[in-house]
Every structure is written in structure tokens, then in C-alpha cells.
Amino acid sequence: MGRVAVVGASGAIDDVESLIAYFRESKGDGIALDADEVFGMDHIISALKHAERAFERGENVSSRLLMETLLYASGERQISLAIERMGVKPGKGRTVLLLEGSQKEEALSRLGLTEDPSLIGADDDAQTKEALERVAMVDILKR
Questions:
Q1: What is the reported pLDDT for 92?
Q2: What is the pLDDT of residue 102?
Q3: Coil, helix or strand at residue 21
Q4: Could you identify which of 6, 14, 133, 141 might form a hypothetical disulfide with 77, taking C-beta atoms 3.0 to 4.6 angstroms apart as the criterion?
Q5: pTM above 0.70, yes or no
Q6: For a pLDDT cut of 90, what percent of the chain falls above it?
């Protein structure tokens, strides 16, 4: 987990294609999640650890760690469904960035976002528990 930064960010992303282009051009990988679908740091850490284990076992669906993390965080088996469920939505002002090898400040500046750690906090224990169950369920769905 040490090589992945989890950053809550406020500010609307109006052009998702520009966001994707930025991540492709940057020195590291990155994804942007809808903060309303993230239920705390435990949710993201669990998804990331499951993704890392999937790579270790050769059971990964995606070729990228952060995309595999998105699958687990969303509870979906298919990338298109995971993006639909948890991907950042145009114009929405609440985002959680997962950055691998990228500089946090550079990403925030380039994307016109402001760091907001409160977006990663979990407000509802029941929702967090449900999110963690979705993460664990992906391993079963993959079989």
C-alpha cells in the first residue's frame, strides 16, 4: 500500500477524457473514484490488498493494479460495471484519487482539485461493512 497514495479531492472534473489522458501521460498510474461510493480508508485498503493478492496468485482480471483495485472496491467482476458504479462522474465535486508513482501535488494542480481528506472518512459503519463484504465477494465472483 505504501506505493499508492489515496487522496480525497474536491473540485469538479468536467472532462473525464482529460483526466484519463493525464493518467496515461503521467509517470505513474492513477484512477479517480466517485467519493460518494468510497466508504472509508478501510474500504480502499481492503480492495488494494485483494488486488495485490490477485496479482500474486495470477488471478487478476486487469493488467493494472489500480484497475484491479477498482474491481474489488466496486464489488464488480467486469471493468465496465466497476467504472459505471465507482468511476468519477463529470461535474461532480467529490473525488478520491488513487495514485501510484505520481506526485500528489502535481496531480491535484493539473486536475484543478483541492485536497480534502474528509472525503475518505467513513460516516456509516453499516455502509462500510457492506462495502467490505462487496470487496471480499469479488474473489468468489471470479471463480
A1: 85
A2: 64
A3: helix
A4: 141
A5: yes
A6: 55
Helix then strand then coil, % of the chain, to nearest 5: 55, 15, 30
Q: Which single residue is written with the C-alpha cell 463484504?
A: 133
Left (φ > 0), alpha (ψ -120 to 50) or beta: where does 23 sit?
A: alpha
Mean pLDDT across the stretch 4-20? 91
Beta carbons within 8 Å of 85's beta carbon, 6+ residues apart: 37, 74, 75, 76
From first CA to last CA, the distance across the chain in angstroms is 25
Can you list the domains of the chain with their CATH numbers? 4-142 (3.30.2380.10)
CA 95 from centre of chain: 9
Residue 88 main-chain phi, psi, to 5 deg: -65, 140
Rounded to 10°, the helix 104-111/16-25 angle is 150
**Sign of the CA dihedral with 110 first, then 115, 116, and 119 last:** positive
Cα angle for residues 118, 27, 79 (degrees, 5° grid): 65
